[in-house]
């Protein structure tokens, strides 16, 4: 069955009762203040059709969803070996910001979607780009086709005020030789990426290349190769939802990437890109109602990679 | 492109040079003595066609591949909550036989495909089946359609002689209340499951229900529901290859389950089941040439779930 | 100042208010049923004088205090290298029954006073003694001069019923080659040692050799050499109180060994042996009021090794 | 027996063959360049007598020995609860610069003698002293009676160039709220403390208060109270030699503090303070020949706290 706005609206109605059972991220005020009742979903098909419901056009902090965008950018700047010698491809089995595994495994992060891995990717971008922060913003604008997209400066500044643990991660990697630039400027770039403000519709459009063998549905450009597109989806499927990737695969059955702003992007390869938003998180740090919405969507339109 | 025996033969030729670069499992003599030159592959399509090459009809010790069979059996005997309250659905990020995470997470194994998880599943089977060992053997015979399938008694006895670490795992779970029967008889069943001797062709037939929404292609019976079939595939994709699941997803892009006997089963949902065998293992304990063969097959026939 | 029975009585009065703030060990009924109001202390001087107060003549389960006795016995049967290649001499920094460090450090326990270490020592005794259980009992009777000392069979049997975690520890060590006999008989011996029932007076007499350069004050026999006596005291000082050894050294300043039965033995080298008993434990598993009593005693008689 | 210069000279002769079997610290050039043949020992009795042998008057980088000095300073500025709520009193059971335990135990270092603990102490000094670096230098000069004592600026600068891991430790503690000042200035102070250049004779004089109930033998001043002196010795005995404290207690039997510059200070409470220097380190990071020299000294003069 094809997704329709009616299906999407029904799904939002069916998950709304979950609001109140999760917890909005509160480590920075700018996230804590987002109303927990926000709820939106958007589907962008490989034919370029947008289907949406709820608060699908309202921008929110994409947070860790940006890690997939940064990795995509790095894959265009580096050879595979250059990337995968500095960051692994395996699930971590641990919290997204743990330093334990990083110390045991001598500064090589498990995958590019935990904080340590994304910070290494940010370090890579800093080494090869003269203005990495502007480049990422341009990339998001290009892929979404929306020139108005901005960094939320309040969020970025607030993250920087609470950056101690990420600084610890970066310094630990630098002690192992796996971080090459100054810590604070790279973290500043990293936090700006997290502070990208985008809507469900914009996110679905932005990541359409992962559903379309590397070619942006919106622009028609090849962003990465078909093989690279499969690879990113494989990493998303095994590592994209922190320590909840198995549960997400079990229930939803699509590659995806979540952020603590409550957004999740999910991919149906060959068919469509989906973005959902509900700020309250489950114990793994993934959107509670958002995950359930994707689970219902997978059931009702009969899509799953499995 | 459809798989043909020529494609399969070429793939075996292309991976044969890897033999000598891995390491045959040697913790028990019965495995150490298997010639490292064995190499076979079989595809079983959802239309019931068998395509094969190399040593595809020679039986070998399926080892951990049996964990997927045992889980399937348990899913027919228990409600989901009964299973998933005792074993998780997440990748472990650790070696397959580590006790560290098991202690930290209070006796709940990360997933049913690491040793601890499979031992809990074996404990479940012992609680609900009067003759669990015979039942599993019958199940393998039924699914493969081959009545001659046997437990390799030498392997089973040898495993039992080297069972200390698995006994430690079982006792640790029992100390947390997550193991209910006597340890040694359950381990004995567990080791017998690992000692099932099957060929690539038999394995591909046996697991065809995972490629066919829960219905065995060979027998036409519904083994598990379509939803359960997706769930098992999701768990295989995230947890089926020990601490190499991400790498396998990245390179092969199919749900799969490996064993230290050198076998790997991989699923193309909706299309086919694949089994490959080459005894030498990589650092994660997965068949070195077998993984490469699946990677080449995925490329040449253009199949991937991503 | 010399200890007097008045000083000891005053100390017990001064610590009695702590009763109710700790927790009696309750993992087996035989320990849980001990009245939490029991409180006793005994000093045995190197001149052979007994000074005591409270329930100093009532027997209780000495539990881990037996680990020091078993080690002493093993030191008479093995060369130092034979012992210290199988068990370390360092504090663990972890709970007394953790398997984590044991796995990381490949089956070599940190020291002979955590469970794993004492189980290795029990394994050593089983290898060299024809009747290790009787031998340890004889040893306790000889050192205390009390022939009536017995194993509490109810405690020993009850421990055996709750032995899963210790069995896990033993099997894990066996998987690393650091355990040589059958697991259950050795555990049975180990639990019997823990189930020795002795009073404060008997304990103080028993361990007098550690305060007297290896020579039992009571019998005049050299139990171990002066050097070995110093070595045992050194190990007690750094490892004798589980993960509370630093705190105990800081507050009490004597080598000591505690048991979850609420007993603690402490040594003032060259002068006296002290035993105290109060069943309620602190968070580290050491007697709450007992530790405080030793702290007060150290202050009031002005003794400390520091 | 009393220590004499002949005894000390003989001991140095007897340990000299160990040179070549350890490893000079080489993480910074300034340490790596120190000749491995340096060997000195000094005893400072509570009667104010200096006995010495070898390179006992040559200054070297005291490194972690400074941690005991900084703690002493902090004990004069803070109430016990203020200190011990921010840093523990237990051995770590891990390497001196590990972050693993620090994350598990939520930013509270195990004890003041591992890096994390000493960095917290440095943070405390920064909070209460206007010029903590000058104050520590004055303290060392006062205690040793040598006004010429200096920070080795080359060592301090070199440490700062290799400070990534310690920065990671500090940031991790700050993320848990257990670090209050700017990271880099505190680290700079910390590295300066490590870069104090002192000789064996100066060290023995400096730490004489620990052998003399808190009163400096050299100046006659009470540096800390008798109780505090015992407490520091207790912490040194259980935590002063990194993950080799148990071995040091077993072999030497004195409270001590080592540094990667190859120095060790050891205390015989009530009698004397000893300092030894030999740059090559054992696997735990303690001076190899230095530890052996202290072991021989303990045997030959018959001193031990046990």
TrEMBL record, chains A, B, C, D:
Presence of the UniProt keyword Nucleotide-binding in the record: no
Gene that produces this protein: glsA
Gene3D superfamilies, A to Z: DD-peptidase/beta-lactamase superfamily
Its EC number(s): 3.5.1.2
Subunit organization: Homotetramer.
Molecular-function GO terms, alphabetical: glutaminase activity
Native source species: Vibrio diazotrophicus
Pfam family, any one: Glutaminase
UniProt key word Acetylation: yes
SUPFAM superfamilies recorded: beta-lactamase/transpeptidase-like
GO biological process: glutamate biosynthetic process; L-glutamine catabolic process
Catalytic reactions of this protein: L-glutamine + H2O = L-glutamate + NH4(+)
Protein name: Glutaminase
Alphabetical keyword list: Acetylation, Hydrolase
NCBIfam families tied to this protein: Gln_ase, PRK00971.1-1, PRK00971.1-2
Binding-site residues, substrate: 64, 115, 159, 166, 190, 242, 260
Family: Belongs to the glutaminase family.
